[in-house]
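Subgroup meeting minutes
Present: P.N., E.W., G.H.
Scribe: E.W.

1. P.N. recapped why we're keeping a running log of single-chain structure predictions: easier to compare across weeks, and new members can see raw inputs and outputs side by side.
2. G.H. added today's entry (721 aa).
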Amino acid sequence: MINFNSVYQFVNDGKRMRIIHLDVTSDICLYVYLEQAFSMPIMGSINDMQIKSDNADIVEIADPYFMIKSDKNLKASEIAKRDEAWRIIEVYWDNKKMAILTKHTRTAIFKEISRIENIPMVRVRRIFSRFWQRGMNRNALLPDYAKSGGKGQERILKEKNGRRRIYSNNKANGIIISECIKKQFEAGTNKYWRTNQQKSLRQVYRLILADFYSITVKKNNEIEKIIRDEGMIPTFRQYYYWFKKNENTELDIKMRKGEKEFELKHRSLLSNSTIESPGPGFRFQIDATVADLYIVSEVDRSKIIGRPTVYIIIDVFSRMITGCYVGLESPSWNGAMMVLDSMVADKVELCRKYNIQIESEDWPCCFLPKTIIADRGELEGYGVKNLINNLNITIENTSPYRGDYKGIVERFFRTVNARIKSFLPGAIMKDYRKRGDPDYRLDSKLTLKEITEIILRSVLLHNIHEIEKYPLTPAMIKDNVKPVPLDLWNWGTAHKKGILRKVDRQIFRLNIMPRGKGTISRGTIVFKNLSYGATELLNEHIYKQHKIKTVEIVYDPRNMEQIYWLKEDGHQYITLNLLDKSRHFKDMYLEDVIATHKKAASLRHEARKSQLQQETELDQRILKIAKHARKKTNTDINANISKTKRLKNIGNNRAEEKERNRKIEAFMPCNDNSGGIVPFPIEQSPMDFQDQDNKNLDYNAQMMKKIRQRKEKAKHEKSKS
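Output recorded in log:
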C-alpha cells in the first residue's frame, strides 16, 4: 500500500522519492525526488506505484530527514528563518494547494508569492522544495547551518593561516602544514609520544624538530644539532592543533601506560556486577589488602610487627560481607583459608571473641556460594580443587592487576583505609610526612586483636549502611526494600532468589586444608620427612591386613605438630601427633621444615662428595698394598712344598706368629732407674697356646648368648607395653 509522506527508493537506479499527495478517487499521486536541489512535484498513478511496489521495483525506506530537535538546541537565527518560511507555507499551501501542485499554474502562484512577500522567486521555490523533500513539517524548513564551513574537510591553504607573529624579529610568517609535515608529526608522535617513557608533548615537539628541522654539525669531535630559523619550522601551536585533531586517546593510554591500565581505569563501562548475580550466594568476591597501619605485638607492645593483612568476602548481589579475617599472613592460600573458614562460621561466636555482642539476625551469613571470584594469588593453591570437586564451588580467577573485576570489595577496602587514617595511631600518612617529621611507625599502638575488632565493627556498619547508586529493581521498590546490604540479603533469601548452601564447618576445613601422601611403616607415618604416630596405628591390622603403604594426609602448613589421616569415606579421620624423634621440628612452619631438610640434604651431599674422594684413595691404597704383598709372598713360597702341607701347618704357624706379635706388642715400662734389667720371655709349648684359644672362644660364646637374651627381653617388654 502506498502511504502519504512515505519515502520510497527505486531499486534499479537508487533514486529516492517522497509521496506528497494522494487522490484515491482520481488515482493520482504526486511525488518529489529527494536528490535534486529544487524538486517540483511529479504526477503519477497510484495503481502504477502499487504495481511497482508489489514487483519490488520500489521499496519503502526510513525517512532520511526525520529528526528530533528541540528549540533549546537551536540558534535564534535558525528559529527565525524556520518560522518565517513556515509562515509562508501556512498562508499559501492550504489555500492554494492544488494550484501549486498543478504544473501549468505553479509558476504563476510562485510569482504572486514573490511579489506579495517581497522575496526572490528562487527563495520561494527553495522554501516549497525543502518543505516537500524533508517531511512537510515545521522543522523541515530549518537552514543547513551544520553543513556550513566544510566541517571535517581538509582545506588546501596557499599561505599560513592564523594570527600574524608580533614579537618575532623574522619577517617570515611561518610555514604551511603540508601533507609531508603531517607525516613527520605522525612519525615523531609514534616514536616519542606513544612509549612507556611518558614524555611531555613539549619534549616530543622538540625531538621532532631535532629529527626533521635541524642542521647536523660537528664540534670538538661531537655531533650537535642546530634547529633551523623560526620561519622555517612549525610552531608548537601548529603541532598541538594537529595532535588534538588526530588524537587517539585509547591508543595513547595503551602505549604510554599499558593495556591493563586502560582496561582498569579508562575503558567504557557498559554493565555492573549486580547483573551477573540474580540473588544472594550466586557470586562472592574475595580479596586481600595490606592495611595502611602499623601494629604492635600482643605479648610485648614495645615491638612493632608491621602491617596486618585484611581479607574480605562479599556477596555481589546484596553487597553483604560474608567473611572477614585480619592476620599477618601475606596474600596467599594460608590467609584465604582463614577467611573462607570465617565465611561458614557462626558470626555470633566470631564476634564474641572480640568483645562484640550481636544477634544471629544482625549477620545471618554462614553459607557457601555458587561462584567465588578471586585473584590468582589467593585462590591458586592446594585446596582449590577440593572446593571445586567436593563442594561444587566454581572458582573464577581474575587477570593480574585488574582490581576493577572485584570493584565491590575494593570499594570497601578504600573506605576502611580512609577510616584508619583518620582516627588510628600508626597509620601511614604518605602525603603529609616531610623531611624531619617523626616516623609514623613509631606511633603504633594497636595490637592485632584490637585492629580486628575495629575491622569487624566496620563490617557490621557496612552491612546496615546505604549502598550508593545500587540498582534497585521494580520488585524491590514495590516491597519497600532499602538499598542496605542486610535488607537486600534478607529480601533475596525470602524470595528464593539465592542458592545458599550450608556445610559442616569441620568438613569444610578438611576440604580447604592442603593434602599430601604419607608413608606408613611399623606403626608410624612419615610425612614430609617427619614421623607421626597415633594410638590407632598400634592396631597393626589396619595397614598389614589391607597392605596399605601410603595414606592421604590433610595438614595445616602453619602447624606441623598434628596432621590428619583422612579415611576412605571422606568424613572420618585420625589425628596424628609428631613423634619424639622428629620433636626438634616442633613449632616450625612447613616451609621451615622443608628448608631445614633441604639444608641437611645439601650438607649430606657435601659430605658424600669428600667421602667419595677419600674412599677412592683408600681403594687405591688397598690395591697397592695387595699388589706388593702378593709379590713378596709369591717370592717366599717354596714351590717344593705341597698345598696340603701348607694348609696342615696353619695352627702351628698361627701359634708362632702370635708369640712373635706378643713380644712386639708387650707393654714395656720405660724406667731409667730399672738398672738395665732385661726380662726373658717364658717359653710356652704349642699346647698352652691352643688351651688359651679355647678359653677365649668359650668366653665369646657366653657373651653373645647374654646379648641375645637381653635383646629378646627388651623386645618382649616393648610389645607388651
